[in-house]
Amino acid sequence: MAREKKAFPLRLDAELHRAVEKWAEDEFRSVNGHIEYLLREALRRSGRLPSSAASKPPSSPPDPSEE
């Protein structure tokens, strides 16, 4: 079942956007997908994401800190 997506505008400093864009490219993700991945990981690590939403999407690269 697909999760509902909430769209909202996000303003980023141009330098920050370029860095995220490069990182997303290195991980074979879109900028939007990479920002969502980074937010989900930060929320999961801080214990602020409900356990049902904490599962990683199958395309996520392995997290070296979990090994």
- Roughly how many Å apart are the termini? 29 Å
Shape: globular
Number of H- or I-type helical stretches = 2
Q: What can be said about the biggest beta sheet?
A: none
What share of the residues does DSSP label as strand, in percent? under 5%
Low-confidence stretches: none
The total count of strands amounts to 0
Radius of gyration: 13 Å
Mean pLDDT: 85
Helix/strand structural class: mainly alpha
Percent of residues in helices comes to: 40-55%
SSE arrangement, N to C = HH
Please describe the topology of this protein.
Layout: H1 14-26, H2 31-46
Organism: Cohnella zeiphila
Protein name: Arc family DNA-binding protein
Keywords: DNA-binding
Question: Would you kindly provide a written description of the structure presented here, covering whatever features stand out?
Answer:
- Pfam families: Arc (PF03869).
- The chain is an all-alpha fold and 67 residues long.
- The chain has a domain at 13-48.
- The chain has helices spanning 14-26, 31-46.
- It is globular and about 35 Å long.
Briefly summarize what is shown:
The chain is mainly alpha-helical and 67 residues long.
Overview features:
mainly alpha
